[in-house]
Amino acid sequence: MAEPTNTPMPPSTPVPASTPRSMSPAPPVQMVIHSLTPNATGTTSNPVWPSSPESSAKIKKHIVLHIGDSVKYNPQTYFEFSQAFEVIRPDILERTRPAFIQALKERRWGDFSAIFRPFWGSGGEMGQWDSELISLLPDSVKVFASAGAGHDWADTKLLGEKGIIYCNSGLAAAEAVADFAVAMVISTFRHLPWCMGAAILPYHNETADQKAFDAASEAFRECHARATRASHNLRGHVLGLIGFGNIGQQIAAKLGHSAFGMRVAYYDVIRKRESVEAELNATFHSDLPSLLKASDCVVLCTPASADGKPLITAETLRCIKPGTRFVNIARGSLVDEDALADALESGMLSAAALDVHADEPRIHPRLVKLARIDGANPGRVMLTCHNAGGTVETHMGFEELSMRNIMAVLQGRDAITPVNLHFLKT
């Protein structure tokens, strides 16, 4: 699957020294926070990244391999980072897969201790981090910290077995993704693509004569009447969350009883603490079919499966109630898109909103057809371009959190956002 192409501020944009850093600034040395402490809901709003307890003069100069664009948003942290470590940044030609493999074989960058990838838009030129690449890494590598929440492009199991902690930056994107998911859930209940598309449909052809304009204007009147009969308030409906990590919990907090009044249900491989469930008024389902049967709107917000198999299939979709809505802000590979199109065309699903797609940047043609607005088709699908996490604040956080993870591990402290500790042999 293609990587998302959410691009931060263009390189030409000046970044002053006073550029605000992600979330809260790092605390002074005497106020070290060794981990992000979840609040009562298990989420970590306004997190504070741990700062270095040692002075840079006393820190061993580990080598850090920086792949991708230069740091743009957090100059103060990068100064601390570059003082603590020797940072080597391969050029774009060295990052193409054949050249990168050759450089690793030649030990061109020595016994580096960490890999730092601060942006999604660059640093992935070498492709999948599979056995071919990972087997060539020196034994000195202890941590790989990257932008982004997803990690289906890297074999985190193999990294762990080699003793390398992989850290993602999903925490930095959680609020942006949750906000976007709220908009998509609202869209499925209020048919926003239809309402928006029908409003401008008469104006698509600026050279049309009055007769054609009057005919096209019927789309406005049709939507005004028909969308009203198909739309519903969110309050009282069951929000079914597949995955109840940081993003899932933030979606629950935003759409639950204290805001939009939805009843929250969730399925996760690990049940959350009773205090988390109580705070979010969330009901746990021990299996996916049970959740699907109970939900009025299903939101997919779980990481991609290690085996690459879809979670939403023709079989699982048979468990849904007629008229259910579906939202995906996780990974396109988790959904059998033909089965999803079947469910939409048959009316089993009343609406869908998809930010991610199985073959990005290409979108499934049947889903594109279902998203179109015309006289016969109300446009029951919202399609976006992997935008959910794409905010400046998210990219600030990606950069900051990736550096903080490396600083923590190489300075003998716990990683902040590790994802593969269960695979580490030591």
TrEMBL record:
GO terms for cellular component: cytosol. Residues 221-372 form the D-isomer specific 2-hydroxyacid dehydrogenase NAD-binding domain. Residues 129-420 form the D-isomer specific 2-hydroxyacid dehydrogenase catalytic domain. GO terms for molecular function: glyoxylate reductase (NADPH) activity; hydroxypyruvate reductase [NAD(P)H] activity; NAD binding. Pfam families: 2-Hacid_dh (PF00389), 2-Hacid_dh_C (PF02826). Residues 1-28 are annotated as: Disordered. Gene3D superfamilies: NAD(P)-binding Rossmann-like Domain. Keywords: Oxidoreductase. Belongs to the D-isomer specific 2-hydroxyacid dehydrogenase family. This is D-isomer specific 2-hydroxyacid dehydrogenase. It comes from Podospora australis.
